[in-house]
């Protein structure tokens, strides 16, 4: 019997009992849908993360002075020796080959009491960490100004968040008019001493929380007043430095070197590696769960095959009398079982894929509801997943057919012919 | 005997029923010449069907030797028996044993599928065979749409599909009325005479048996008597 004839026969035999074959493959469908949904979610999220990070630039890394920051509570304060990022360090990094850009940052302690005096209102605000532009968050688009610009000049300027502007009683129609106005940011110590900083508004950011942002020089000035120190940078160093290398491998090398020197280094590359590792674990776990469902499905298929063989005992006898070998009978039933598995796999793949297609916009809608702009596909069926899952389902079917087919092959032709 | 296509010597077949051994055949010596029509007759339980199954390679003897067309069936391996059944033997059963899900033409094709005959040739040969048994108009009917006589005609066409040298028929007219049985028998005899096939037929109907060249009477697993209608050479 040629392989084409075996496939044709198996296919028509499966098709002969449509309902039964469908029921037998149901277990496979459930298992396959689970695997497809989980793995496609994992690969969708993985692709999103990788894309987002790549668009932000994997060649960038952020260096922090190690140890606790002044004013932060840290019970393990004694453990790492404090390693400051000095002005000299930054100057050295700037001169290193393969470095495109070095931006040093100083941030205010989180305990600082900061208020915005403007238009007769006095509201508590927070200093935004980093700058609005670099802070692009995963799954979100790069931030755009509501008005003006998000690029701060060297000194004397301020960016207000949407929340801060609305908090001062300005309607959103008047945002453009705010740009260029003078505002007063006030620092207050716990003892009640205050210091005012007069700054000119250059732009409004989209954040709804009351935030302000000022340039590095202004932050150094604020921090200097807070700690009562004329040059806080020379004393404590920078809080963080963002370094942009020419390429990813340069960033990796530099990251390793700086960590050796005792700095804390964060790079997007590290995030991506960690995220991918977690996703791999999650994917493996869910695939295992789906695989268990598929293994359970073998019981259904095996049962169907045993029934089919019992019903067709006489047919097997006829085939054997006509000169079908044990191997051919075995292959015939194995193939039927494999087909049932494959049909379940294809159905499960289609269902899982459709479910994913339906869930993608649902996630976006949920994101909009939560005022988070989420873009992109979260369920991604890769060709490898499609081929793999169908292959696995077919394998499951073959596995289920193994014993029943063996039984059919071993039937004595005379006894089988006598079977009613 | 000239050119014996089937030779049996000392063939015995025991079945284990519970703890007792039942002898279906207890030492049979027989030779059948090529092109001969032999009828095996005897009461039920005489071992005639067992003998037929042994010749067809569906069963193996407990003792003795069987040679069909130069192949020693008692010593042959499983694959050789499969090949024997596929290429040399055409079986015709009392209960037709057509595959119920296949049409007439597909049933006739099925042995050729097993023998890996190319598709186009399969269909052509099956059509010719069905026409030769007078079923040219019933090609695409399923067995449950056919009368007993028609079913047996399909079965005969199927038995001839792989051009066997040997036709083995187990009560081919047993499930048919007398008139239909007679036509089937005529058809079978005609085919055998025309193509020089060797036919071994099991029957308990002496009228049917009388059409044969030789009648082998079996009783309790041994040959009691062989009636020969042709020349004296056709003895054991």
Would you kindly provide a brief summary of this structure?
The complex is a heterodimer of chains A (420) and B (236). By secondary structure, chain A is of the alpha+beta class.
Please give a structural write-up.
The complex is a heterodimer of chains A (420) and B (236). Chain A has 420 residues and is α+β, with helices and mostly antiparallel strands. Helices cover 55% and strands 15% of the residues of chain A. Chain A folds into 2 domains: 3-54 and 274-418, no CATH class; 60-267, no CATH class. In chain A, strands 3, 4, 5, 6, 7, 8, 9 and 10 form an 8-stranded mixed sheet that branches. A 4-stranded antiparallel sheet of chain A has the order 2-11-1-12. In chain A, helix 9 (268-311) crosses helix 11. Chain A is elongated and about 105 Å long. The two termini of chain A are 26 Å apart. Chain B is of the alpha/beta class. Chain B has a domain at 36-49 and 78-228: 3-Layer(aba) Sandwich (Rossmann fold), CATH 3.40.50.300. In chain B, the strands form 2 sheets. A 6-stranded mixed sheet of chain B has the order 6-7-8-3-9-10. In chain B, a hairpin with a 2-residue loop joins strand 9 (214-219) and strand 10 (222-228). In chain B, 47% of the residues are buried. The chains are: A alpha+beta (420), B alpha/beta (236). At the A-B interface, helix 1, helix 10 and helix 13 of A face helix 2 and helix 3 of B.
